[in-house]
Amino acid sequence: MANVLPVEKQEAVVRCLVDGASVRATERIVGVHRDTILRLMVRIADGCQILHDRHVRDLDLRAVQVDEIWGFVHKKQRWVTKEDDASQCGDFWTFVAIDADTKIVPSYLVGKRDGATANAFMADLSARLSRRVQISSDGLNAYVDAVERAFGGSVDYGQIVKFYEAEPIGAGRYSPPKVVDVERVIVEGHPDEADISTSYVERQNLTMRMNMRRLTRLTNAFSKKVENLRAAVALHFAYYNFVRIHQTLRVTPAMAAGVTPRVWTIGDLVAAGSLKP
């Protein structure tokens, strides 16, 4: 009979991962082999995705912001060769949607930064909403067709395009460049120009980089497999939506959106690992 990791150990592993510890750091802290940690992460993340699909539905959201955050699997894009399977390595992007009011993340998707991923992402977002919504994005062209395909014109959509100063050279070059100009463009419907913004979703990008070690910039932490990146993302958003108290809202985003009446626990996420589709 195979050994089963005690529930307390499983919860400790998940706590480390969602708090931004790397797999190897979690191995040292909890005393569980990294291969076991990765298998556990994938299993629990599969359950978290099931929970998300079951509960994050029929959302009454007003203004949704979308963006994509960069990462890579196995190697960066410039090192990908013709012999490599481009679908399994190189640059990968996590598309994220966040509600400006409740801060819930109704939809996310890991893939390439292309039209196919944008279309799938927007189709998933549309399926989770119960009313006409305003969407804001950056200037990525793939969003225009994706929004039209997913919402069929029943949407208020605007893009915000930011213009930055030239990247500094030398000391301070790792600091983010300053925004020198902003242009808001109405793409479809009648969006409120004051609400055309990506501020909240860009802040969520920072939260992701802080709480998922594999997305931290300028380190040697990265995903070796696409499966692991997708698992880390699913685990992060289950924790963010259902478990973590939002400092401003004083409740979880899922509670603010009316998805659940209570704060969930790490134990609830671990228990989700036994769910079947």
Describe this structure as you would to a colleague.
The chain is built from nine helices and six strands. It has 277 residues and is an alpha/beta fold. Strands 3-2-1-4-5-6 form a six-stranded mixed β-sheet, sandwiched between helices. Strand 4, helix 5 (142-151) and strand 5 (156-164) form a beta-alpha-beta unit. Helix 3 (34-55) packs across helix 7 (226-243).
Summarize the topology:
Blueprint: H1 7-18, H2 23-30, H3 34-55, E1 63-73, E2 90-99, E3 107-111, H4 115-127, E4 134-137, H5 142-151, E5 156-164, E6 179-188, H6 199-211, H7 226-243, H8 253-256, H9 266-272
Parallel strand pairs: 1-4, 4-5
Antiparallel strand pairs: 1-2, 2-3, 5-6
Helix pairs in contact: 1-2, 3-7, 3-9, 4-5
Total helical segments:
9
Q: Which structural class fits the helix and strand makeup?
A: alpha/beta
Number of beta strands: 6
Instruction: Report the major sheet.
Output: 6 strands, mixed
The averaged pLDDT comes out at: 92
Q: List low-pLDDT spans.
A: none
Principal-axes shape call: globular
The value of Rg in angstroms is: 19 Å
Distance between the termini: 25 Å
